[in-house]
Amino acid sequence: MQQTINSHVQTGPLPARRSRRFKPGSFFTYLILSVWALTTIYPMFWIINNSFKLSNDVMNHSFTLALDPVMTNYTAAFDKINVGKSYMNSIIMSGSTVLLVLFLGGLAAYVLARFPFKGKRLIFSVLYASLLIPAFATVVPVYELLIKWKLVNTYLGLILPQTAGNLTFAILVMAGYMATIPKELEEAAFMDGCNRWTMFIRMFLPMSKPAFASTSIFVFLWSYNDLFSALIFVNKDTVRPIVSLLNEISSQYGTDFGLMATAVALTVIPVLIVYLFISRFIEKGLTEGAIKG
């Protein structure tokens, strides 16, 4: 009798599975995202594909696959226009800018997020208002300061202006993220004997990795692609970044489209490498950092 009951229970009707309903809104959402992805990915593919072609092939067969790739463009990029030196200049300048922005911005964000003091709201208002000031409005006074300090055509001549220009964004993003860290953790750290500096290094810095990562990628992109500042503050070959080199290629080697495509492809590679390493932190840092401010 017991076996009959058990067999009846085991062979009883299974619960009906929920059928996924087709939603037209989701279809159009994925369609728009797919089209947008194609418009972003295809130009990059087109550039890399044409970098393995000769200039005549780029002109006559621009949209065909490079089935017989040639490496002469990449050889000429390093031998003829010295891309390696410009690469090193860009990495030094952009990397130093990121480190300075993260260090100074992180300390300022920690103070604004966790220290109660008068004038705090005013400081936030000034920071938000400073985002409305265009960079072109500060070129003349910044250039005069660099001339007075003898920093024109030096690494610091581009690092310092880019650091100052990106600090506001970094402070606001990191302060918003640090404000979401529970107060109880800070009180527990005080009870364990941590001072403010130890607390920042051992607690706030590790917990704010998403905010630091998202800030670093944006600061790196903005400083790496800053052609306007590079043309004004560092216009010598010895300190010329790679974006400035691209401008020279387009003027001196305008007919060599294969070489131009190669230079553009080489310019994008460092950005892709940096993004792949810290991409998992970016979305979390931007979304959670926007909760409070």
Structural features, described:
With 293 residues, the chain is mainly α. It has 2 domains: 24-70, no CATH class; 77-289, Orthogonal Bundle (MetI-like fold). It has 14 helices and no strands. α5 runs parallel beside α8 (155-178), α5 (83-114) packs across α11 (209-224) and α13 packs antiparallel against α14 (257-289). The longest helix is centred in the C-terminal third of the chain and has 33 residues, at 257-289. The chain is globular and about 70 Å long. The protein starts with a helix and ends with a helix. It is found in: Cell membrane. It is a multi-pass membrane protein. Residues 87-278 form the ABC transmembrane type-1 domain. The chain crosses the membrane at residues 27-48, 91-113, 122-143, 155-179, 200-224, 257-278. InterPro entries: MetI-like (IPR000515), MetI-like_sf (IPR035906).
Summarize the SSE layout with pairings:
Layout: H1 2-10, H2 24-50, H3 55-60, H4 72-79, H5 83-114, H6 120-130, H7 139-148, H8 155-178, H9 183-191, H10 196-207, H11 209-224, H12 227-233, H13 242-252, H14 257-289
Helix pairs in contact: 2-14, 4-14, 5-8, 5-11, 8-11, 8-14, 11-14, 13-14
The CATH architecture of the largest domain can be given as: Orthogonal Bundle
CATH class of the largest domain: Mainly Alpha
- Work out the count of structural domains: 2
CATH topology of the largest domain: MetI-like fold
Q: What gyration radius follows from the Cα positions, in whole Å?
A: 27 Å
